[in-house]
Amino acid sequence: MSAEVASTRKDDHVRLAAQQQGAADAGTLGNGFDDVTFLHHALDGIDADAVELGVHIAGAAWPLPIYINAMTGGSASTGRINRQLAIAARETGVAIASGSMSVALDNPSLLGSFRVIRDENPDGFVLANVGIERSPDDARRAVEALRADALQVHVNSVQETVMPEGSRAFSRWPASLEAIVAASDVPVIVKEVGFGLSARTLTRLRDLGVAYADVSGTGGTDFVRIENSRRPDGDYDYLVGWGQSAVACLLDAPAERPVLLASGGVRTPLDVVKTLALGAAAAGVSGGFLSTVLDGGAEALIERLGRWRGHLTALLALLGAATPADLVRTDLIVDGATAAFAHARGIDLPALARRSEALRPVHDDSTRDSTRVLTRAERNPQ
Ligand code: FNR
Prior knowledge:
Blueprint: H1 3-22, E1 36-38, E2 55-57, E3 60-62, E4 66-68, H2 76-92, E5 95-97, H3 102-106, H4 112-120, E6 126-131, H5 136-146, E7 150-154, H6 157-162, H7 173-183, E8 188-191, H8 199-207, E9 212-214, H9 223-228, H10 246-252, E10 259-263, H11 269-277, E11 283-285, H12 287-319, E12 332-334, H13 336-344, H14 349-353, H15 355-359, H16 376-379
Parallel strand pairs: 4-5, 4-11, 5-6, 6-7, 7-8, 8-9, 9-10, 10-11
Antiparallel strand pairs: 1-12, 2-3
The chain binds ligand FNR.
């Protein structure tokens, strides 16, 4: 593919993704987040001063359980967007991923539009991004070009299917991934691009030696719609809605799995907290942050991330969680289409709705009988 065609595609993706964010139904189609609510416990709150938002991911301390997820690079205008995103990452300390670097591996004249991420953010946590079909040597070159701290490898078979110039040959993907993982000097994070990672996929990733997986589910940026509108006759419109939401993926994740990250339709600090309560270590945002920098530049994203930091602290205090990891003790009610999905997959939703009881021994079954006198040990648990 020529550098010109590759650059035009990158500009198309940004334009069409931004249009989706502005659409009336943005973030609502198949969005599992609105199917999840926290059971409110009025006396469970703690002091905001006691909340610590930092997480440890891919060998590094992240100040917030949020990251700017993979988007762009590969043209002059996407290079300018990467610059804005990188400045916001530098000023807030959040991790940032580049868009797929495949175009620059094929046309090194385009590398500058990706390198700007590291140039603007020399000490931050930066993730390089390549497609799963690239060679281990290409993956290493991508990491070197950004002096990246980790490597995202994206899996995007649905997007390729609808993309006019897309691939239709997927059988080599597991072997290709295994080779990339074996040769990589930095942690590898396998990510979807908005269609979700199933329980079987997560098990296979674990077996292939992958340490981190970003489930990137449906309900946010929709690459079926983006690629379909790049087709002359838009004939794949019936595939809109394919895949699982991030919420469904997290609910269905097997016990033996890579460390989970979540993205796909994350709109608010509450959505972030829901991913953490469902077992994710951090949540990524692409489309929403893209709109912020397109509208107001780096300053607007810095301001937004600052506001999210404050809200995350407030929400954890409200939920009685001193750290993001403590959120896995919260009680979650799941309904709507996500409950139907959970039912079909045999997921125990009643247990999720009372899991705080199992983890707080004083609230065991016997103490729910109000006529029974508590023993001293029950009143004063050690
Ligand atoms: C993306 N995404 C993406 N992912 C990836 O691994 N490599 C890439 O090059 C791109 N390119 C890209 C361009 C644009 C403009 C957008 C908005 C997104 C997918 C992205 O990382 C994420 O998985 C999905 O967008 C879902 O998250 P949001 O957008 O709903 O927050």
